[in-house]
Specification:
With 275 residues, the chain is of the alpha+beta class. Helix content is 19%, strand content 47%. The protein is globular.
Amino acid sequence: MNHIFYLSLLFQIITCNYKTQKPSGLVNSELNLNQNSTTEYLINSVDKNLVGKKIVDTKKIKLLKEILISSYEREFERPYMWDIFVSSNDNLLEFYPYKKFRINGIDIVSYYIKIKYEDGLYESIILINENLNIEYNAMIVYEKLDSEEKYSKQTKVSGDKVILTFKKPTYTKNMVFQFTNGIFLDYFDVPNVNKKWKDKGISSLEYQQKGKTKNHRKEGYWIEKKYSIKYNKTIIEDGNYKNGLKDGEWNYSPEGPVDMIKIFNNGKVIKVSYP
């Protein structure tokens, strides 16, 4: 009888252990599914608990302002917040370190930007790949203006795609960029681009894009008429792209004659001249 009792007890212990353990093959399958899935998330708010101390270093502030201007000009059209850089508002800009974002396997630092107006508040988030010193190393991914006028921008990150959605009082639009090798590149679904259009807010502002693409990126000679914060008007830029980056000599013409020439090497400015 004792042998039968011990055998019965041993059988119950084995059965209990079997029920509480999951097959190792199922666990590995779940891990692989998570690793292979596309990273997708929205940037549509600011977590104030992650905002660091206000930046007071003047050199750092100057650099961040330059990057901010370059990032605004990626919008092609005149940005809704174009007047941030007029003298009366420029001193209101405040920069704070924010959290890191991960896009396409790369961690990128970000900064929270704030302007307190008498009748409102402007907030934004800019991502900057500080390991690269080229024009396309940054992107403004979030904006919110809360005043008499309402304006916002939010971003959807899906794998290597960065999709911006602008919500202006008069209309909504999207822009798509591809984050690859640590930079934000313009993304196109067509092999040829040839379009002209007028600003929906200010009809006197006209824009143009004309050129070819390869692997969804700008390639070869392009002519572009876009808004420049520096000139406070639309200007004509023309030159060559190589794999989505400016390369070689680029001309900048605010009113006919070339006013400035930049020489690029794989997206990095190596010389600036004024003919």
